[in-house]
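FAQ: What does a ligand-bound record look like?

Like this one, built around S-adenosylmethionine:
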Amino acid sequence: MALSRTAEYVAMFRAVESSRSPEDRLFDDPYAASFLSGKLAFGARVAGLRGGQKLICHYIDRNWPGSCLAVVIRTRLIDDAVTEAIEGGAEQLAILGAGYDTRAMRLPAARAVPVFELDQPPTQERKKERLLKRDGTLPQNVKYVPFDLLEEGVGAPLKLGGFVSGLKSVYLWEGVLSYLSPEAVDQTLAWVASSGAPGSRIVLTYVDISLFEKNEEGIAEPPWSAQVAKVGEPFRYGLDPLGMNEFLAARGFKLGWDLSTAEALGQNPGISGAEGAPDFYRVAMAEIQDR
Ligand SMILES: C[S@@+](CC[C@H](N)C(=O)[O-])C[C@H]1O[C@@H](n2cnc3c(N)ncnc32)[C@H](O)[C@@H]1O
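The answer part, i.e. the structure of the complex:
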């Protein structure tokens, strides 16, 4: 089990966005830079210099087109969705594959509820070390739950960590589905649907399954796949946006909304001024139905 490099890239994109001026940026993640090392830490420092943010985004886009913007837009959409769910009565937040997510500290709504952060031990330990180095303490409202989703599933580790089944809850599954198997996705959704009170919400991101279609040469080459594969975390799983209602209904959920990061630009007044967000990267929110 290795340290997640993709989690560090995501933190870098958040650090770069946070270096923009308060009027322009979509969010401020003051913790993101603390999780970076090597060239990613250097890139985030350059982004903080005059003109540096554009330079770094340009460099990232050359290698990994639209990735930074997709992460920035999804972060903002999810910040709003998690806040809305908690303000709507969710009593706990479970973050599956939390990486360097800092919503438990950043979002006023999330600071007021217990937050369960699940991840593989190497990434989780590193996150705790970096936070301790930065602040000398860990957030009181967070319970860190080490787990491997493919080996153990979510239910038992979360229960051990103190998550209370039957409460109205919000579950976040951001940037993780692409690395899982269909069985693991189904098992996780089945557990989520049975563990939260009806009306509980899940917010998830996924890539459009059409990315995995083969080209004329018979090769499936989704954008970014070479990059994520290079850091040892290849894309393995996608979903069909046209089938999301059905897919979720069959698993006990009602789809609330489902937007590509490109569509989010047009539909969310909080997200403006950015161009070139990918169509294939999507964020969806669904509610657990009455059983
Ligand atoms: C791209 S990162 C996203 C992190 C975070 N959700 C975010 O958006 O900032 C993917 C995360 O999924 C976690 N992950 C991937 N496979 C996993 C597995 N089998 N079990 C537990 N966590 C896993 C990684 O450790 C990593 O933190």
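Follow-up question: can I read anything off the structure? Yes, for example: The longest strand covers residues 253-260.
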